[in-house]
Amino acid sequence: MTQEEVKKALFRRELLSTLQEVDPICLTVRTLLKDHGLNDVAFYVELLAHEFMNNAIIHGNKQNTDKKVIFEIKIGRKWILIQISDEGAGFDWRHKKKSLELSSTATSGRGLAIAAAYADRMVYNRIGNSVRIWINKRKKGGQYGGVRH
Amino acid sequence: MAGYGIERSGVRSLVTLNGDLTASLIPDLQAALKKELDGETSEIVFDLEKTVMLDSSGIGLLIAACNSISRKQGKIQVIKVSSEIRHLLQSMRLISRLNVSAKEE
Fold first, then answer.
1. Which of B55, B59, B67, B90 to mutate to test the interface with A (most CBs of A within 10 A)?
2. Which of A66, A67, A76, B88 is most buried (most C-beta within 10 Å)?
3. How many CB pairs under 8 A join A and B?
């Protein structure tokens, strides 16, 4: 983000690459969204924040506490924008399977399925270590189902 | 308060979450569940009344418990979930597999 964009960010945090850092940030997000009257989408925004921060910590930075994750959230007129960046090598997001179809016995792999279900739009940077996610402020729980890239 | 409590009554284990079921809780809860499932337990109930957030790691733990209990011909229930968590599990097509019931049911 540019300096100007950083100044406008509603909430920005750097976190160490340990999963214990995620919950307090998401609780702050939950409160912020409810303070802005966004109760209808708060759960889905917080869920996406959890999923992508977990991914950044586990898959991006390999839980290396020398590496940081940056989390930012902005609330616009129509959209909520989350941006999460890690210091890892990235991944080949262009060829990552986006299918929602998982075996009901699968114990992992649902993170991207959740993103596909609840994010309105997702854009990765070229190497795949930073992602921006847009969520429509006015969507309600029953209206979700699909993401554009 | 700990993130969860486990009460055993005969072959039934009741796991009560005292808050969110997310990635940071999983290692500890997974170890505790393994002890239950390696023992006499053939019925496991997860009470999510106090749970606001369930992420994919939490879903994975519920499915792993379901897989383990199924191998013993046992059963699982996930009870008192919020409407948002119910919607999430519905979108993942896990309502019947996990025997999910909502807070008002």
1. B55
2. B88
3. 66
At residue B28, φ and ψ (nearest 5 deg) are: -65, -45
- CA atoms A122, A125, A127, A130: torsion sign: negative
Q: What is the dihedral of CA B29, A107, A134, A67, to 10 degrees?
A: 60
Stated pTM of the model: 0.89
Task: Answer whether A19 sits within 8 Å of B23, measured CB to CB.
Answer: yes
Task: Assess contact for A139 and A41: CB atoms under 8 A.
Answer: yes
Look up tokens 């997000």; give the residue.
A29
ipTM above 0.90, yes or no: yes
The pLDDT tens digits of the residues spanning A49-65 come to: 999 999 999 999 999 99
Name, in order, each residue with C-beta under 8 angstroms of B104's C-beta and a sequence gap of 6 or more. none
Whether B99 has its CB under 8 Å from any CB of chain A: the answer is: no
Q: Is B67 close to A105, i.e. CB distance below 8 A? A: yes
What is the rounded distance in angstroms from the CA atom of residue B76 to the CA atom of residue B96? Answer: 10
Residues B26-45: pLDDT tens digits? 999 999 999 999 988 999 99
Distance, in Å, from the CA atom of B27 to the CA atom of A35, rounded to the nearest integer, reads 33
- Residue of A16, A33, A39, A43 to mutate, interface with B, max B Cβ within 10 Å: A43
